[in-house]
Design a protein that fits this description.
Layout: E1 2-6, H1 11-23, E2 28-33, E3 53-57, H2 63-73, E4 77-80, H3 87-92, H4 95-114, E5 119-125, H5 152-171, E6 175-180, E7 183-184, H6 193-202, E8 207-210, E9 216-218, E10 220-221, H7 222-235, E11 240-244, E12 249-251, H8 252-263, E13 270-273, H9 288-294, H10 302-315, H11 317-324
Parallel strand pairs: 1-2, 1-4, 2-3, 4-5, 5-6, 6-11, 7-10, 8-13
Antiparallel strand pairs: 9-12
Helix pairs in contact: 1-7, 2-4, 4-5, 6-8
This protein binds nicotinamide-adenine-dinucleotide.
């Protein structure tokens, strides 16, 4: 089968590319990425030369380009990881989030319909469910939890999810959606909490923590997320939504302290800053459906995953420095 994977130079997409290209030598994977500031060709450079893989630079919102690509490549499956993904950016500039996350999804689905794609998978987020109270640990998001968003980012992802549902029901597009909790692991752009903490701590710089650091996230290793996406794409039921969660709720301050401890750095580096506007309090996912229907499970505990992740960044300081200096932008050159 031939797969189009969009956003494959980003954090989760690049981990996905490594996973599937190596696991399925008889399938063919085209990685499409616009290489925005968050796309880093270094994340996938080592896949160059693999027989079942190629990289294409391009924008999912470019209708003409996407149509041509589908016409030429004859994909069987489309997996859409491409998105603007940073909540803080969405608060400063919502427009690009609506364009990429909603209209880009529409462009991909229109092409998927026109070229009779066998499966369109939308990579979504638990943030579409809004947040949960801190004092109700019994409450979890299920696939039936109403959409109730807080940020322009989550609203744009929810808009895309609703459109995916509509394309399935109205036009019969064979879709699936996965909604996952907060990911951590290698190749995460140093604007998100965990790589920010590590890169600042390495330089003994102050580490900003929003509010009092009590916001809770359900942390999942990126590999566990990607195994779930792959299972949904191959075995999930058309028209369905599947939640994927880490079963590892931690508040932000605990996460920061865990990392500092492993790095042998002082907690004095922590500096509490003004809270993010509309900051969601708690996310927690019930992934029983994916576990029961697809046999999906996590292989990482938070302790093992975070420890390996910190080690990865410490062993790859060049990767971070390359981003901080802007050098990573030169990693891809048109042939
Ligand atoms: N990071 C998380 O914890 C998390 C959790 C759940 C779901 N998600 C979802 O997973 C997906 C990937 O997230 P991520 O953290 O890897 O994001 P990321 O920002 O690291 O990567 C996004 C990638 O998409 C590419 N891209 C952006 N606009 C594009 C466009 N118009 N055309 C083509 N490519 C474009 C970027 O260049 C980048 O490589 C997103 O859809 C996100 O909403 C993320």
């Amino acid at each position: 089968m031939k797969f189009l994977v969009t956003g494959g130079a980003g954090f989760i997409g690049s981990n996905y590319m490594h996973y599937v290209v190596n696991k399925y030598p008889n399938d063919y994977f085209v990685c499409l990425d616009a290489l925005t500031y968050a796309g880093n060709y270094n994340n996938i450079k080592d896949l160059e030369g693999k027989e079942n893989y190629k990289f294409v630079k391009g924008d999912i919102t470019d209708r003409e380009f996407i149509d041509k690509l589908f016409d030429t490549e004859k994909f069987d499956v489309v997996i859409n990881f491409a998105a603007e993904s940073h909540v803080d950016n969405s608060i400063k500039n919502p427009a690009i989030f609506l364009t990429t996350n909603i209209l880009g999804t529409q462009v991909l689905m229109d092409a998927s319909l026109k070229y009779n794609i066998k499966r369109y998978h939308q990579v979504s987020t638990d943030e579409v469910y809004g947040d949960l109270p801190l004092d109700r640990p019994d409450l979890l998001f299920t696939e039936d939890t109403p959409i109730h968003t807080s940020s322009p980012y989550s609203s744009s992802k929810a808009g895309a999810d609703l459109l995916v549902g509509a394309y399935h029901r109205t036009f019969g597009l064979p879709t699936t959606i996965s909604r996952c909790s907060n990911n951590y692991g290698p190749y995460q752009f140093p604007e998100k909490l965990i790589p920010v903490v590590i890169s600042k701590a390495l330089k003994n710089e102050s580490i900003p923590v929003y509010g009092t650091g009590t916001n809770v996230r359900d942390w999942i290793h990126v590999i566990d997320h990607n195994v779930g996406v792959d299972l949904i794409v191959r075995n999930g039921k058309v028209g369905e939504v599947y939640n994927l969660g880490g079963h590892s709720e931690r508040n932000n301050l605990d996460v920061v302290k865990t990392i500092l401890k492993q790095m042998g750095k002082s907690e004095d580096l922590i500096s509490f800053v003004e809270d993010r506007k509309g900051h969601d309090l708690r996310y927690a996912i019930d992934s029983t459906k994916a576990e029961k229907e697809l046999g999906w499970d996590r292989t990482y505990t938070f302790e093992k995953g975070i420890s390996e992740t910190v080690d990865w960044y410490l062993n790859n300081t060049e990767w971070i420095d390359n981003i901080l200096s802007g050098e990573y932008k030169k990693a891809y050159s048109e042939k």
